[in-house]
Amino acid sequence: GEDVEQSLFLSVREGDSSVINCTYTDSSSTYLYWYKQEPGAGLQLLTYIFSNMDMKQDQRLTVLLNKKDKHLSLRIADTQTGDSAIYFCAGPYTGGFKTIFGAGTRLFVKA
Amino acid sequence: SQTIHQWPATLVQPVGSPLSLECTVEGTSNPNLYWYRQAAGRGLQLLFYSVGIGQISSEVPQNLSASRPQDRQFILSSKKLLLSDSGFYLCALRQSSYEQYFGPGTRLTVT
After folding, report:
1. Cα separation of A77 and A20, whole Å?
2. Measured between CB atoms, which of B49, B97, B102 is closest to A31?
3. pLDDT 10s digits, A39-50
4. What is the DSSP letter of A94?
5. Chain B contact present for A91, CB below 8 A
6. What 8-state DSSP symbol labels residue A60?
7. What pLDDT was estimated at residue A92?
């Protein structure tokens, strides 16, 4: 079935760039998403990318999509301690009702 | 804009006791509604989704059930809780293809 996989942990120093990677199996996904979850809270949409795009930039965030390899990445430039959170990669199921989430990557930012 | 309310925020229940978690939404009509569970250190597991009043789809067979008695109300229930039901329960809505909005979550501890 459809699946989204992510590495579980990433640790970076404040000011460095963070790159969080994701692979997916559903090639029919129209949109792919990155959500952020801060401790004890719900998820908030960070950014999304249409499947016909290769790259999307939004301030410190850059999303790269490699459709051939079914690989999605999120780059956070100049990572700050406030960026410490869990980041979820997600894509809609072909039926359009369900979104398949990865397990989440926990980003630790060291001061 | 859409707002999702969940209550209670935290709950501690003994094994074998019943459960009722409530989710209500504002600022939207006829949304798709979702219940997710996030176990400690794990990703999001879709439990139920609903495309309308009285319409419930179950993703994972378990001792939980869901109901949607009103357009903006989604309830998660159990007759007898298990230890494995502990987790962070998130209600979400989807109005368009672009994103899901998540509630603040309910942390359930079964003792």
Report:
1. 12
2. B97
3. 889 999 999 998
4. T
5. no
6. T
7. 66
Q: What is the pLDDT of residues A22-69, one digit of tens each?
A: 998 877 777 889 999 998 899 999 999 988 899 999 999 999 999 899
Count how many pairs of residues, chain A against chain B, have C-beta atoms within 8 Å: 53
CA–CA gap between residue A10 and residue A19 (Å, rounded):
8
Report CA-CA distances (Å) from B17 to A8, A33, A88, B78.
33, 37, 32, 8
Specify the higher pLDDT residue, B1 or B81: B81
| Residue B21 identity (one-letter amino acid) | L
Is residue A61 within 8 Å of A71, Cβ to Cβ?
no
Distance from CA of A44 to the nearest CA of B (A): 7
Which residue of B34, B98, B107 to mutate against A (max A Cβ within 10 Å)?
B98
